[in-house]
Amino acid sequence: MAVAASLSERTFVVQPGSDVTCDVQVRNTGEVVDQFSVDVVGDAAPWTRIEPAIINLLPGNEATAHVVFAPPRSSEVLAGTVDF
Taking the model in full, what pTM does it have? Predict the structure, then answer.
């Protein structure tokens, strides 16, 4: 498996109860057809969705996954910086 991935933005601000989208560009740099899974880990994972979460790519091709961060308006979501 050989892959290159890049984010459309490295930092952004989202208010609880609203959402913000970050694009992840995935490129298959290998020589075989491959499948890539895009996932968010850490404290942001429970309120994040990825569309599509699995990408199948031919060698040299690329695709975009949209990562939507939507923190709920809740006391369980702490204010401040959240790494993902």
Answer: 0.85
